[in-house]
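Appendix B, Record 12. Input sequence as logged:
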Amino acid sequence: MLLIIIFASCNNGSSSNTLSAADSSKNSVTAEKEQPVTLKPKGAKPEWGPGITPEMQVVIEKLMSYNDPALVTLSAADARKQHSPADAVMDVIKENNIHVPPSNLDTMGKNIPVTGGNIHLRIYSPRGDGLFPVIVYYHGGGWVIANLDTYDASARALAEQTGAVLVSVEYRQAPENKFPTAHNDSYAAYEWVVKNAASIKGDAKKIAIAGESAGGNLATAVCMMARDKGLTMPVHQLLVYPIAGYDTTTAAYQKNAMAKPLDRPLMSWFFNKYLRSAADGKSPMIDLVNANLKNLPATTIITAQYDPLQTDGEMLSDKLKAAGVAVAFKNYDGVTHEFFGMSAVVPQAKDAQVFGATALKNAFNK
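Logged structural output:
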């Protein structure tokens, strides 16, 4: 999860083109050129993470210091009110006087119609005249928690490092909206971008797709839906620790059963909130590793060592390759789920962002 900006959540009103405090952020900041700061953990390394890096441990210690109740003991509505890893990073930045330079992006909000209602998009735009490449981005949170603000830092980093317009999608969440609502909303957002790219200074011939965790699952599902429906395919997909299956007994789920901030009980809670029944877990939209992955775009997959989803990403990489898809895969040791947006404090996040952004830029330039 991410850092840098925590505003009010976006408003899913009925207006087709809205601009809110959360979306309007010309003077917002991102974490790309901060001065080196040495971060030292207060305690011993956790049992579940004997090789955790000092910086990652500092973030986890801050997150644990809030003493929030376990999310699995709460309703979804209450779980959304608890501290996130993004909050922990924000506090680590403040407490250590870490310099975070201004962002070079403008943002605006837009509501688009979908079946059964509207969803909100936050559009991050480079300054200058388009047409720019476009990234359609889906945030994480198990289809249940988190929002555009929580993942703002990832969105900004990808937009800034690629020079692309980035459209961050606020799909409807569970349990209020069960499977396949988030998937259908995500496809509707992608379809809207394909058909309206020019209206956001975007090049319709250079659209990529990206997502973290549940958002990584949504990204690949959207690619599969676009393929099956005959819609223009993304030129690339960037998947950061994606949920790629319903099996919670994989090697990573067992090894990292009690890791933080994501553990096996929380993943089971997410599945229970989003899926209508266990049968939905076998849907190709959820069980990506057993889906038809042929003719999907070239893919970059990033995983973390201390993450129940590490094996999901690895298996998806293997299955995509077996289906004839070009894949670049990279696992980052010493870090946990949600590390990707933490480049202000976690060096591996900075490297991962460059790795992902470079793959996207290369795809745009082909």
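Confidence is low (pLDDT under 50) at residues 1-21, 26-34.
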